[in-house]
Amino acid sequence: MAPSTLASARPTSALEEAACLGITFSLSGTPLAGVLQNLWVVPELQRWERCQAKHRPSSSFAEPLGRRARAARKNETLQETKTRFLLFEGETDKGCQIQLHRPDTLQQCGFNASLPLVMIIHGWSVDGLLEDWIWQMVAALKSQGAQPVNVALADWITQAHNHYAIAVRNTRLVGQEVAALLRWLEESAPFSRSHVHLIGYSLGAHVSGFAGSYIGGKHKIGRITGLDAAGPLFEGTSSNDRLSPDDANFVDAIHTFTREHMGLSVGIKEPIAHYDFYPNGGSFQPGCHFLDLYKHITKHGLNAFAQTIKCAHERSVHLFIDSLVHPDLQSTAYLCSGMDSFSQGLCLDCKKGRCNTLGYHTRQGGQSKKSKQLFLVTRAQAPFKGECGRPQPSRYLKAQKFPRSLFLEWLPVPFQCF
């Protein structure tokens, strides 16, 4: 479609929007085919977004895309939600549905207003099924006997099981619904939003950010954790249109799959939180290489190929779960300018708050407007902490005869984890 046409009329759906570029797509076929098909079309969608932003007059859109442009709508009273909100009483149950404006469901589902609320928000879905890691995280959170919490799931699978671009647009709607539920909880029970912790994976990380933006009022949500927040259609956008430190009193993010392919990365690379953690540099993760495919076949059978593809992306989830199930093996990350400096041993210092714990037990004090980027090395499987040593000079070199920078640069693998 010509730019002049874009300026004069807005397509009625994301499917029609993609058709403006002559793009057609389908979710038929295997999950792997769906993944590859969706990743292929994203560059064209990004080009369309840039073109549309350049040529459209702001007044021609009845439904603006930016969060702040929709601020007037965020306090609208929703009577029902497409998102299903499930509350878990035990480690193994499949959840009890809380319904907006139905206080009786809070009692039926065992909501305890005196305890914090931790809500899990999943990401994009290719097959329309909730992934196994969700139940693992529920069990890990419910097992925290010393610090009991309400554990909930925002199940937006019907909106997430779409073409990726459509699911991206749905994140804003789901964010509104999460915000509406939290506002209703405050009105229905003596409960404070400051006791809410949203844990969002991939697109769910941005849903969490939109919820924090849409909730309104003088006070913010207590904490948001972004687990490898989605990159395509979010990387490089305004902080108003993705997860950002402004969305909660404390925001932390774990980046595990930021390696670029055709100019795109599955996980967002830029800092989006008060504390941004980059395990193993954030671009890729040990144990997720295609050389590990045979190991994955043993564990996952026919799904091994798809599991290998999403291994690094989902590693963020398992690092977080690991912090819950192995409280005695907490992984420490260090403030550093980048992985190269960290690998040379130049940042292993905890003075003045220059380190923090990865995962559920992250220290929340000392937030600043500027993001703190922290790095660490992990093992290829749980428990991920392992034993990581400092760089050591070769036994053939005498440290006192060589500048420190020389032998550190000479060593090919300065860190080893076992």
How would the blueprint of this fold be written?
Layout (H helix, E strand, L loop, with lengths): L2 H6 L5 H6 L11 H25 L28 E5 L7 E3 L4 H7 L7 E5 L10 H11 L7 E6 L1 H4 L3 H25 L7 E6 L1 H12 L6 E7 L20 E7 L20 E5 L13 H8 L3 H22 L6 E4 L3 H5 L11 E3 L14 E5 L27 H7 L8
Parallel strand pairs: 3-4, 3-5, 5-6, 6-7, 7-8, 8-11
Antiparallel strand pairs: 1-2, 1-4, 9-10, 9-11
Explain this structure.
The chain is of the alpha/beta class. The protein has 3 domains: 3-62, no CATH class; 76-376, Rossmann fold (3-Layer(aba) Sandwich), CATH 3.40.50; 392-418, no CATH class. It contains 12 helices and 11 strands. It has helices at 3-8, 14-19, 31-55, 103-109, 132-142, 157-160, 164-188, 203-214, 293-300, 304-325, 339-343, 404-410, and strands at residues 84-88, 96-98, 117-121, 150-155, 196-201, 221-227, 248-254, 275-279, 332-335, 355-357, 372-376. Strands 2-1-4-3-5-6-7-8-11-9-10 form an 11-stranded mixed β-sheet, sandwiched between helices. A hairpin with a 7-residue loop joins strand 1 (84-88) and strand 2. The longest helix has 25 residues, at 31-55. The protein starts with a helix and ends in an 8-residue tail after the last helix. The relative contact order is 0.09. Mean pLDDT is 78; it is low at 1-37, 56-75 and 388-418.
